[in-house]
Write a structure and sequence with these properties.
Oligomer: single chain
Distance between the termini: 49 Å
Largest sheet: 2 strands, antiparallel
Radius of gyration: 23 Å
Order of helices and strands: HEEEE
Strand order of the largest sheet: 1-2
Structural class: alpha+beta
Strand content: 25-35%
Number of strands: 4
Length: about 60
C-alpha cells in the first residue's frame, strides 16, 4: 500500500513539475552578416550573439 502511495506522489510531482512556465523567447530584430574569407562562407547571425575566433575556428554564443 505504501509503494502505491509513494508512486502516486512521485507521479504527481513529475506531472506538476512539467507544468512550469517556460521563459519567454527573446525576439532578435537585428542581424549582422558574418563572412569568413578563409572558408569563403557567409551567413547572418543575431547581433547580440558573441563571436569567439580561434585561428580558423569561429564559435557563436547566444549568452
Amino acid at each position: 500500500m505504501s509503494y502505491r502511495l509513494l508512486t502516486l506522489i512521485l507521479l504527481l510531482a513529475v506531472i506538476l513539475g512539467g507544468c512550469a512556465k517556460k521563459p519567454p523567447e527573446v525576439n532578435t530584430a537585428e542581424w549582422q552578416k558574418f563572412e569568413d574569407p578563409y572558408f569563403k562562407v557567409h551567413f547572418t547571425v543575431p547581433k547580440n550573439w558573441h563571436r569567439i575566433s580561434e585561428g580558423t575556428k569561429v564559435n557563436f554564443y547566444s549568452s
